[in-house]
């Protein structure tokens, strides 16, 4: 799971870098295993759907006014 989470972060266009830490050499190797492959678009969409949270006010309200609040990405 950590490799999937790190890989998903690395695929996001708004994330420029990911800082990792490790208790030992084995955990470092596991974390570095997140590099060199990509999730499929379908897999990434499933993760995005599973991690969607309801935005607090005023953010959910502003989503109704996309012409005034364009998306950053």
Automatic annotation (TrEMBL):
One Pfam family linked to the record: Aldo_ket_red
Domain NADP-dependent oxidoreductase: start-end pairs: 2-50
InterPro entries linked to this entry: NAD(P)_OxRdtase_dom_sf, NADP_OxRdtase_dom
Record's protein name: Aldo/keto reductase
């Amino acid at each position: 799971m950590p490799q999937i989470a790190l890989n998903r972060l690395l695929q996001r266009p708004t994330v420029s870098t990911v800082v990792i830490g490790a208790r030992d050499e084995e955990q470092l190797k596991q974390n570095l295993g997140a590099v060199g492959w990509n999730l499929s678009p379908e897999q990434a969409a499933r993760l995005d759907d599973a991690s969607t949270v309801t935005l607090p006010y005023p953010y959910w309200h502003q989503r109704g006014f996309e012409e005034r609040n364009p998306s950053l990405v």
